[in-house]
Amino acid sequence: MANSVVRAPRPTDVQSHTMTVHDIIHNSLIDRAVEHLPQIALTIVIAIVVSTILRRLIGRATNRAIKKNPTETRRDARLKTLASVGKSTVSIVVWAWATLTVLGTIGIDVRPLIASAGVAGVALGFGAQSLVKDFLTGIFMLVEDQYGVGDWIDVGDASGTVEHVSLRTTTIRDSDGTLWFVRNGEITRVGNFSREYAIARVEIPLSLSTDISAASQTILDAATAAAGDQLKGKIIGSPTLDGVSTVSTDHLTIRVKATTKPGAQWEVQRGLMGAIMPALEAAELKTPYPHGIGITGVY
């Protein structure tokens, strides 16, 4: 019998077969994409146009609503916050639709993807708990109107003016110009300095030998004059004198305060201090420190 020779498959045959399967899948997707290129391009163009139009409509509607009542700062801040979140939501929805449409156009069945959304949601709940927490906190923040764009807030690790709010993060610009990106899920408490009104409180240190009655009247007169002049429109009502707030071994402190419009408390504090100190100097009322006003010849 003639020996039958069985030729072992050469590596090049296996490699050729493997590459052929890969090429079939790869080329099939490319061919479908090229074949439906006009539809894909049209879908992308529609997504860009729709997203741009909706975002501009949201922006214009917000601006018109703000111009109708420009003095309602709380309402304006809420509208800006809702507009920011609305624009982000529009982008997510439009581009999710565009992605599914393109996948369906090139022949990829998107029904299993949609059907597995429930399973993916469960996996997301376990694998991305922090992300879900950020979104849920952002939703409650919007519903409860805790703060908005333009508000000065304190969230613990950062404080400053809110510049942008989304369902996941809040962007805060502090007094030094640093921009902080804070995850909503990490915010456990919020101090809002821009709600309804604020209090500007000034503590004036004076010598223990100072005539308290004269000093109190001088401080109140200077604060009242400043409220009707350079601080007019920022103070609600008139400044009030609390009197002596602290007494120490080398000085006493007299407190004066004023109710201000939201966010104006720091400007009012500086303005009151700038008006009170010259008034004390003119009245020759002593400060508690050796080189303070009204004290001379002590070195």
Automatic annotation (TrEMBL):
GO terms for molecular function: mechanosensitive monoatomic ion channel activity. It is a multi-pass membrane protein. The chain crosses the membrane at residues 37-58, 79-98, 110-132. Residues 131-195 form the Mechanosensitive ion channel MscS domain. Keywords: Cell membrane, Membrane, Transmembrane, Transmembrane helix. It is found in: Cell membrane. The keyword Transmembrane helix applies. Coiled coil: none annotated. Residues 90-129 form the Mechanosensitive ion channel transmembrane helices 2/3 domain. This is Small mechanosensitive ion channel protein MscS. It comes from Corynebacterium argentoratense DSM 44202.
